[in-house]
Amino acid sequence: MDYSYDEDLDELCPVCGDKVSGYHYGLLTCESCKGFFKRTVQNNKHYTCTESQSCKIDKTQRKRCPFCRFQKCLTVGMRLEAVRADRMRGGRNKFGPMYKRDRALKQQKKAQIRANGFKLETGPPVGVPPPPPPPPDYMLPPGLHAPEPKGLASGPPSGPLGDFGAPALPMAVPGAHGPLAGYLYPAFPGRAIKSEYPEPYASPPQPGPPYGYPEPFSGGPGVPELILQLLQLEPDEDQVRARIVGCLQEPAKGRPDQPAAFSLLCRMADQTFISIVDWARRCMVFKELEVADQMTLLQNCWSELLVFDHIYRQIQHGKEGSILLVTGQEVELSTVAAQAGSLLHGLVLRAQELVLQLHALQLDRQEFVCLKFLILFSLDVKFLNNHSLVKDAQEKANAALLDYTLCHYPHCGDKFQQLLLCLVEGRTLTRYLKRILLQSSFYPSPTRGEVWHNQHSSPTRSCPAQAGICLQGCSQEVICFVCFLI
After folding, report:
1. Distance between CA 72 and CA 64 in Å, rounded?
2. What's the whole-model pTM score?
3. Which residues, at least 6 apart from 179, have a Cβ–Cβ distance to it below 8 Å?
4. For residues 69 and 173, is the Cβ–Cβ distance under 8 A?
């Protein structure tokens, strides 16, 4: 079933840029892409790309490469399950409520535009800016240095591109080898989240109080309740940084065959990962799931959350020529180029492109916490006992993010969709990074790990080993991510 929309809003098809004709298979598209998507799915067509699987798709050349066109349809959110297999007219109306909600929000946006006389000025989004990083008193490897102290704003950048000094780069649709390749979470059944620090270079669980959390967020107009709750769950940046710095000041216990810098990064990654697990355990809905489902979700998304955390830190950092670590130190991109190798360096540059894209979209803290929640509750995870609860959480987060973007950024009508596209790119970065690291010479031989939960542990402790989550051998894999992240 196709749903009409308000043509006064003058939206363009996210696939080819043509004028949209209505809601088709999950979102607003033009008639041409609607028909193309329907024929491809119903006829079970399989296309090939004669180029590099990154062809430009626009109104003038959308018919040149059906492979890349279909991949873009999937990337922007067209739904395979919305196409009727029996070829009867009229689609499945389970998307009707979503369409109606989106149409109502667009009507509100239109009314707001008319009321403001087309003078749209968005005030700074509400948020609690974290304090500046403390000065370090430990030594890091050459090439790292502490930045000048400055507050990290929770709202959008002050200028069109802040301090980056470069335009946002276009989103490159990743290559694929099948209809859905590259757009779902990759399966790595042998790469479980593991261990209680058995390696000599891994840091043991650090004693001390749990990570602190900011005072309850009072909120503001137009901020959905879900986002307000997520803001309250965000760890206090200053306390997380202080805990990591304290861990790094402990005597190093590196392996003789690994450089000191590698051991340092390992301990840094352990603590960063601990904060992510602690955040997930406090999230609403997540703590209502069975332990097996909790572990399945974490095993699926922890690496993507690490990458996304890094991306957002660089947006706050606002400097194109260097990268900011979680400890508050900077590393020059020239250092990465010299030490990381060509493949990892290429991924770092691709991550910086994503930073520029999100910076140009004016990603703020409210959207950041909502995107993290969407990563955690991915619908691509299989073998969940309570899939309906995860799906409900995903739908509520999508609705909250859509509400927020339309209310606070009415001049960016497709911001919601662009943010989801950036999540796809971040997921692809994570997948490529894993592939490279598994083939690298310094990556340890993989062993199957086991994730388990101690039913008698206190749920309020922040250290995974103490909180009942066993992370055996995790440092080996996490450290490789940190090598990429710096």
Report:
1. 13
2. 0.54
3. 46, 70, 71, 74, 80
4. no
Q: What tokens does 138 get?
A: 């430990």
Q: Is 342 annotated as a binding residue?
A: yes
Q: What is the separation, in whole angstroms, between the first and last Cα of the chain?
A: 48
For residue 290, give every residue at least 6 positions away whose Cβ sits within 8 Å of its Cβ, in sequence order, or none. Answer: 385, 386
Are 62 and 16 in contact, with CB atoms under 8 Å apart?
A: yes
- Cα 336 vs. chain centroid, distance in angstroms? 22
Q: Which of 195, 204, 200 is nearest to 255 (CA)?
A: 200
Query: Has 343 been labeled as part of a binding site?
Result: yes
The C-alpha atoms of residue 375 and residue 335 are separated, in whole angstroms, by 30
Give, as one character, the DSSP assignment of residue 207. Answer: P
179 token code pair: 């209809």
Gap between the Cα atoms of 10 and 18, Å rounded: 10
Distance between CA atoms of 318 and 257, rounded to whole angstroms? 36
Spans of all domains in the chain: 7-115, 144-485
pLDDT tens-place string over residues 375-389: 999 888 888 999 999
Q: Give residue 159's identity as a one-letter amino acid code.
A: G
Nearest to 248 by CA among 259, 264, 272, 269: 264
Query: What pLDDT, in 10s, does the model give residues 243-297?
Result: 878 877 776 555 555 545 556 766 777 777 788 888 999 998 998 999 999 999 9
Locus of tokens 């909250």: 400
Residue 5 contacts residue 106 (beta carbons within 8 Å) = yes
Report which of 134, 144, 204 is spatially closest to residue 324, judged by C-alpha positions. Answer: 144
Q: Which CATH topology does 144-485 take? A: Retinoid X Receptor (1.10.565)
Residues in contact with 56: Cβ distance below 8 Å, sequence separation at least 6, in sequence order:
none
Give the helix ranges, DSSP H, for 43-171: 66-76, 96-115
CATH class of the structural domain 7-115? alpha beta
* Cα–Cα dist 351/369, whole Å: 19
